[in-house]
Amino acid sequence: MTRVVAQTPDPVLAALWLGVLQRAGIPAFLADQQIASVYPGGILGGVRIVVNDDDEDEARRLLDEARAEAESGDDESTPGS
């Protein structure tokens, strides 16, 4: 079975979150990406990030860390930082 671990109206942000999970070796996919591009602003719920049940806890932890880093502005991948 699968679980939705995150949802966003922003398809670009969803793709970034997907990359975080995939780089950590967690199989994940985006659901409703096409609908979100046709109906922007999350009117229908936005893009969902989906993982296997077994990966749910780790995926949520990684996404929480990614959100915290983004909010603090601590992006180690930014050149010159």
Write the layout of secondary structure elements.
Elements: E1 2-8, H1 11-23, E2 28-31, H2 33-38, E3 47-52, H3 56-72
Antiparallel strand pairs: 1-3, 2-3
Task: Sum up the structure in keywords.
single chain; 81 residues; alpha+beta; Alpha-Beta Plaits; three-stranded antiparallel β-sheet; disordered C terminus
- Oligomeric assembly: single chain
CATH architecture: 2-Layer Sandwich
The gross shape turns out to be globular
Radius of gyration: 13 Å
Low-confidence stretches: 77-81
User: What level of helicity do the residues show?
Assistant: 40-55%
Which fold does the CATH topology refer to?
Answer: Alpha-Beta Plaits
Biggest sheet record:
3 strands, antiparallel
CATH class: Alpha Beta
Structure description:
This protein starts with a strand and ends in a 9-residue tail after the last helix. Mean pLDDT is 85; it is low at 77-81. A three-stranded antiparallel β-sheet has the order 1-3-2. The chain has 81 residues and is an alpha+beta fold. It is 44% helix and 21% strand.
Summarize the structure in short.
With 81 residues, the chain is of the alpha+beta class. It has one domain: Alpha-Beta Plaits.
